[in-house]
Amino acid sequence: MNTATASLFLLFIFSITQSSFLFGVANATDGVVLDVDGDEVLAGERYYVDSAVWGAGGGGLAIGRERGRKCPEIVVQRLPSFDKGNPVVFSNADTSDKVIRLSSDVRVKFVGPRDRLCQTSTVWKVQGEGVPSRKRWVELGGSKGEAGCDTVES
């Protein structure tokens, strides 16, 4: 399987692309997410998610832990820029479409080897402290879930 590197900038800041900015949100919904080589990001393929700023931006995303806690595992960014982190696979809620689109409801899952200290799922989920602080972070332990706006934590 060919492993590509996906830019954090391209994957998570895609709403500020020239096409969506100039032609409106409706046009952006049909757009595709591209990797750093300009190829379409495909469901089921392995990608490394790393900083768009090489050198000063840090390394790739990986499985990590908060200090003093073994579970749940969280998504962290590696410090050295040469560390790619752990590969991920994107799955599209629309299983008939293999291409990840700007409007896709996707699941992100780390794949590959990991230690067995914490046996949670490697599917990402958004967690938070609630309304007063509005702090959010991504941790592992999500499930495939159902598509839709009510599945932010799966």
Automatic annotation (TrEMBL):
This is Uncharacterized protein. One of its GO terms (molecular function) is endopeptidase inhibitor activity. It comes from Hibiscus trionum (Flower of an hour). Belongs to the protease inhibitor I3 (leguminous Kunitz-type inhibitor) family. Residues 1-19 form the signal peptide. It holds the Pfam family Kunitz_legume. Keywords: Signal.
